[in-house]
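Appendix B, example 12.
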Amino acid sequence: MQPPRRNSTQSPAAPPAIFLVDIDAFFAQVEQILRPELAGRPVVVGGLVTDRSVVASASYEARARGVKTAMPIAQAHRICPDAAFLRGNFHAYARFSEAMMDLCRRYTPLVEAVSLDEAYLNVTGCRRLFQAQGVVSSAADPWPLEAAEHLKRTIRRELGLAVTIGVGTSRLVAKIACDYAKPSGIAWIHPGREERFLAPLPLAELPGIGPKTAERLARYNLRQIGDLARIPAALVAGHFGPAGEALAARARGCDPTPVDPDPGGPKSISRQATFQANLIDRGPMKAMLYYLLERACRQLRGAGLLARTVTVKVRYADFRTEARGRSLPTFSDHDDDFWPVASALFNKVHTRRVGVRLVGVALGHFAPAGRQLDLFGERRYERRSRLYRAIDGLRRRFGFSVLVTGRAIELLATHDRDEHGFRLRTACLSR
């Protein structure tokens, strides 16, 4: 199937048709596909029974027993002791995610991946094209529903993945419709029926309404989306400021946010790791911090970006979290430029005689890699850049573990490795 060119098939009169495709219980489902013996069994991804971790994903068989995302693994094991508990594999999940996004782009180039397991598609005006390609059988009104069914079947046939699809005239309606149709269903909200669909739902289901806003609205006896939709937008804006008008519009199903296939680069690049046991010794903490910085800088270079700020985070055994950031004198994508600053920041945030359960690092304040650096250090910078390009090339070819730097070498005594690097405790999120 050839993808449509932008706007080539759109009619000015065509009502918007937005899909939200959501992979059901993504991590757990991929494990069931890769390990057929797990089909139909409760599966929990996030850690082994002995790990001090939380649930990252649970199959619907496990959810039916009461297992929930973010629940401690130990609690999940008490609830569902016969489940398969797995640490998972981020790289396998990323491959399935990329394959699904590529498949969605066969239907339209207007695909915005919002997470590994979710994507918005804008198929507005594609009816005739889909009809010519056999995606839909007729020009009848339910063509968006037919197209969603075709996409769902294709994903299942080619990738083995079960997905849920919400279809609406806006991102907001498609998102809420998708939540309504889970698991493995399709919900199409016909144009003109958005308010009727949203009206009976609790206000908490509306994006932009958190607990505090919901509490304020409840004081006026506004508890359902329809209650808010009936209030004039000017009155809502008078009580909630500029955001109130947009809130009132969303209650009526209006959301002008476009589907953007190129929403721009990341605002930050971060890595963090939780230790298997709380640590007191700074040595292994700093070894892990440097390893995480290596991974973040590698992603930075791969994205063609430079960064100027670095932030270091420490979480203690009592869950108190300390974080500090600092800017470099100039932009860089070199591990060795960020490390002295990151190391000094770690010394400032690690001040308590309490065990540490987590360390993390984040890079921010980005600029394109072609940005002119200070001339004095340009020659030295280019020499080191050649070295990092060689290291990145070796790791792409032979795996990240082909090289272990001296600052991270302590991890060899405490962590197993595979081709992707050290196996961190939450392997399903380890990139």
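The chain has three domains: 1-191, 196-251, 268-429. DSSP finds 15 helices and 14 strands in the chain.
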